[in-house]
Fold alpha-1,2-Mannosidase.
Amino acid sequence: MARSRSISGSGVWKYLNPAYYLRRPRRLALLFFLFVSVSMVVWDRMNLAREHEVEVIKLTEEVLRLEQMLEELRGVGDGKTLMTHKDVPEDPVDIERRQKVKEAMIHAWSSYEKYAWGKDELQPRTKDGTDSFGGLGATMIDSLDTLYIMGLDEQFQKAREWVATSLDFDKDYDASMFETTIRVVGGLLSTYDLSGDKIFLEKAKDIADRLLPAWNTPTGIPYNIINLRSGSAHNPSWAAGGDSILADSGTEQLEFIALSQRTGDPKYQQKVEKVITELNKNFPADGLLPIYINPDNANPSYSTITFGAMGDSFYEYLLKVWVQGNKTSEVKLYREMWEKSMKGLLSLIKKSTPSSFTYIQEKNGNSYNDKMDELACFAPGMLALGASGYGPDEEKKFLTLAEELAWTCYNFYQSTPTKLAGENYYFSAGQDMSVGTSWNILRPETVESLFYLWRLTGNKTYQEWGWNIFQAFEKNSRIESGYVGLKDVNTGAKDNKMQSFFLAETLKYLYLLFSPSSVISLDEWVFNTEAHPLKIVARNNDQRKPTITLRQRRFGGEIKG
Ligand code: DMJ
């Protein structure tokens, strides 16, 4: 009993009593010494851990740099180097940033591979996939050429196997012919042009043949929805009066002309060119068409005129078919129509107050709407690409306009707390821009324009802007299982979708923004609206023989021009 009292009573508790130590200075000194030693050890460990973290980051960067050097050496082995065409050595900052973008692609792709393999799109937060395009492997096909261009050989081969063995278009599914064309036909044709592998051409032909009945209308202006198995076609029920949508009907020309060139079968080209000749019959002097067109008589309905949703890529393709056709007399009509539309675009240009941001209005009848979609931010790139076809004065004017619009689009990003752009913006007197619909779904249009402006002006500012946007995606949209959009760019609240165009377009344009201009040179390639590069081929009236000579190249690192 006496022993137990001494442990629970004065025996242990006395050591916690300060008076005990005041009476024993030696013990106090010992205790102080112990406290200082332990603190120093803890502090030392924490410092060491921090130093290790820094070391690991440095090593990761070093690994990326060495990988890059290895790829350059492989390039030398192939008789190519990563020098630009002007033989200027690459800026090391570009190399580092390109690697960072490549790493982002690896993260996006491996998340898709892990959680949504073969599905149309990854839902990163629920870690599963969804078939938003009828189960056509949209992300797989949209990513093929990006993987190829970035030199991600293993990933590319695995995706190629899936295309060869599991991709099946025989589906009782009402597909959007626009989305199917730009993502699937475009993605497959681009990968065929890059790799020379015939499987991609066969698959492109298979899906294009299933889409062809959509053009069987009285005018040849297509219905926008088609059943992939039965070929029965119609327009979406929500479109005004059963009309066809302008962008959906005028954004198949590049892909179907390319398919005719590569197969030697003219039927694809004939269908899509008929649409343009039909629209040209009553093409207005300002080249601006409303977003709804009647497929029975080709009359435009009273509806919005816009360079944003549902109008945008019609104008883009007028220019790009001219580029694809080598800018020859055979494609003169496309350039003429495009130049008319650019007159119309000029009539929609306005400046905000107080900061003088240049923007493109929308129009309905005689009334103008001070609203601009982020989707319309493809326009600076288009203007820069088309400027060189004008004489010197017009060229300068359109290039200046492109640069001004790019500044506005960049500010769509810079003006929000997350530094990511909302879906559209309103302009009001004295207040410049304000976000309308506030989501961001990882769209590419602004970085697409920055890519064109960088390539065509050489101004490094556009690289800086692109890098800032990339960092905002990394900060807000990257999660452990992929990349997500934002429900609201003001709060940063996340959605649950990794859009396939993030891998097809956003990351590809960012990667090319930091690559030499000989990589997918704009003199040799034309990008479809989903960023799938198609090789520019001499146009030949005799479509019986393919006129394309493909570069068959073994895989050996990143593509180098
Ligand atoms: C893509 O599918 C294409 O760029 C299309 O032209 C517009 N919408 C998305 C990206 O925002």
Observations:
- The two ends are 91 Å apart (CA to CA).
- The CA atoms of residues 50 and 117 lie 38 Å apart.
- The longest strand covers residues 424-427.
- Residues 182, 313, 375, 443-444, 501, 505, 529-530 surround 1-deoxymannojirimycin (CB under 6 Å).
